[in-house]
Amino acid sequence: MSDTPFGDVDHPRPAPIHPDAVLPPPMSSQPADDDPTQALNEAWANILTKVSKPNRAWLSNTTPVTMHASTAMVAVPNDFARDRLESKMRHELEELLSDHFHKAIHLAITIDPDLELALGAPDHEDEEEEVPPAQFVPKVTVGTTEPSTQPVSTVDDDEGNRLNPKYTFDSFVIGASNRFAHAAAVAVAEAPGKSYNPLLIYGGSGLGKTHLLHAIGRYVMSYYDNVKVKYVSTEELTNDFINAIGTNRTREFRRSYRDVDVLLVDDIQFLESKIQTQEEFFHTFNTLHNAQKQIVMTSDRPPKLLEALEPRLRSRFEWGLLTDIQPPDLETRIAILRRKVAAEKITVEPDVLEFIASRIQTNIRELEGALIRVTAFASLNQQPVDISLAEVVLKDLIPEGRETPVTPERIIAETADYFDISTDDLLGTSRAQTLVTARQIAMYLCRELTDLSLPKIGAEFGGKDHTTVMHADRKIRALMGEQRQIFNQVSEITNRIKQY
Ligand SMILES: Nc1ncnc2c1ncn2[C@@H]1O[C@H](COP(=O)(O)OP(=O)(O)OP(=O)(O)O)[C@@H](O)[C@H]1O
Hints:
Elements: H1 36-50, H2 53-59, E1 63-68, E2 71-76, H3 79-101, E3 106-111, H4 113-118, E4 137-138, H5 158-161, H6 179-190, E5 199-203, H7 209-223, E6 224-225, E7 229-233, H8 234-246, H9 250-258, E8 262-266, H10 275-290, E9 294-299, H11 311-317, E10 321-325, H12 330-344, H13 350-359, H14 364-381, H15 387-397, H16 408-419, H17 423-427, H18 433-449, H19 454-460, H20 466-480, H21 484-498
Parallel strand pairs: 2-3, 5-9, 5-10, 7-8, 8-9
Antiparallel strand pairs: 1-2, 4-6
Helix pairs in contact: 1-3, 6-7, 8-9, 12-13, 12-14, 14-15, 16-18, 16-21, 18-20, 19-20
The structure holds adenosine-5'-triphosphate.
């Protein structure tokens, strides 16, 4: 009996192809049948069209190397990609290769760091550098040595942190649909890095996830001394990362995401299929988590349904606490409208609030939009806000019958058509008054009628910044109650969009 790892010495198994083995150079002038490299190139191109969707993105960073007998060698840029191919895709790829070559094919995966450079990927030197542990020291109220149980100062650094001053725990209405998420958010805000880390809040559009994220940030900033809170949407995170790669500033990128005490990341479902950003975020996550810094994320789905997310990232998202937010019941919707009219100091009779709340059931952003339209219409016409008026206004907003989802393309096309301008002009940068108004109305309608986030809307308008969209949204909301012309324009365009 042989003691070699290859079994019987009389019948040695062929030496396995080491992933880093040097294989014969390709002979590109030969026909594909004789040229192993070309044969594999063709097979790989074919496989890219057949591989299952979640796996396809991973293959975009791979390169076929060559064939050697029944072994196909493929290069990937790093360990991360190799792990993924090994653990999730080997079986599928070998099957597809075997089908293509009509014989059993074994896949060998090698790492080619040049590939990473060619892809513009960052160096990995400081992937998970140590950062000092978080220290959350409560602010002390003047005249006492005890920390206040309430936030003791307002957050004056809104610009830097981009936390909406209206999104606080105080302005958040609690109901059965969001009670648990709210309690978890408060627990995290009171003891960041200690109670639940990470906290992940998931649920449908317009249900208050971003509101809670901002409320946590504002609370932490007002309650603790010298804390750094960073709020970011996943689109911004991805863009920052891509820019950092393009300008060789990945170290600065890392510092800006790791030199924080609380990281708030909105809409992490947009990480799906973004392989390099996932990898970068994985290391950022580890660095922050190891230093007991708090991470809070929102998503439209629970992590297990984020199929195109790297498994080790998905499992980390499940380390702490997962909590969902459901659409609010009627009572909560009425309470939200009441809170809203009180905050805006407007008077609307309870039966009208109930009517609006009964008509708009699943999205609180739409609920607020309906209230704005009803009160704007009443103010323009100097009419009391009653049910018959609300019925007229909401008829346009909620057409009878089946509704097809509204897309930004349709909003842009209808708005351009209404103002008799080209879509290029609408999406451009001209400051001519008609174009500015048309652009701002279209942005407002994207905010009101679609589920898109501010950065996503900005991207639809030729790459405008999210703050431009926010400004347009606020401006048109305000103008609707002041200028009949704007109200009519918004209503008519909505009508056309909805009747499409
Ligand atoms: N429980 C609540 N109390 C008061 N206002 C709420 C509540 N829930 C949501 N809102 C308001 O509804 C609007 C939409 O909420 P938010 O933007 O937080 O939703 P979201 O779940 O993050 O949606 P999306 O996934 O589309 O970004 C905001 O103006 C928010 O203040």
